[in-house]
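Backbone shape codes
____________________
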Amino acid sequence: MIIINRIFNTKTIFKMKKLKFVSLMIAALFMGFSFTSCEEDESILATEDEDVELNIAEGDQSAVTTIYVSDLEAGATSADVTVNFTSVDSKMRRLYMTQNIAGAGYEKYELDLDGLEKKGDGSIDLSSGEGYEFTFTIPFPVLSGMTDGTVEYQLWATSGRGDYRDFENSLVSGPGKVIINYGGTNPETSPVKEFTAKILAAPLADGSSETFISLINGELYQINEGVEFAAYWDFGYYYGASGNIADHGPSLASTSSYEETFQVTSGTSIVDVDGIAGTTELNDCFFALSGMSVAEFDAIESSNELEDLVVPTEQSINSLEIGSVVEFVDNYGNKGLIKVVDIVGTYELGDYIELDIKVQ
């Protein structure tokens, strides 16, 4: 009987130790989650003694602060600005930022700081505790090669996935502006954005080919990269050689019309853009063949030279050839030109079209 009790007591103690160990592990795990959640924005969280320089509230788009480079220490590479975001009705989940250098137009701006949690599209992932208010101290760069004009930053918070080119998309608070003033004025005209030697691959049905291009940055995208990047895509390439598109040949189509346009048989999609990307919120883009020569395309240098382009009505263009120049207007009203540099093959794996692009 004594032996049995000892065995029983030993087993009981062992079980109790195991339970205690498991409990400690679970507690540690929850502490770890809590730690991660609290610390994920530590690199830009403001301290209590920092003065807020920009208050950005829900429904208010007038907040602005200006930093004069002449007021900074000599050789300064950045200027810290403490911003406070607040909302009442909607929870803030992401923070977006754009940059406008010398009046050339707003471009995506992405903070690159150690330990900063970001979404796939580059926006800052706000922690659960920052849903209705947060205060960040953000370092804005002082550009060493710039001596005149301004660099403007827009900042806004969204309730979900937003759009760098449309701050109204899922907007909660903002946008507010931070202006870095270098003195003097911005140039009267701004240069066009140029994307050279962009090679769009013939599409694969699974969406794994780099078939779409973004006019934000000239990057190529696969459809199966998913919903995080859908707002980036502007148009794609396909080669029509049979069925309803037998006479299309080398073609471009907007992202929104791509699935419908690229159909050998009516009603049967070759590439299920909506299904693969996981969204129907896709960009329009309108095309027309230009009477402009290659030499005239090459001579375009400033954005205002594109102002007189007439907005086309078609969201696809077919039968392109090497040397073709195409006029386009994107989903956001930006005008541009495309030059066809090369066409390789048809619709097989490894076939592609090479483009040079100029856009406002």
In short: Residues 1-39 have pLDDT under 50 and may be disordered. The CA atoms of residues 200 and 211 lie 5 Å apart.
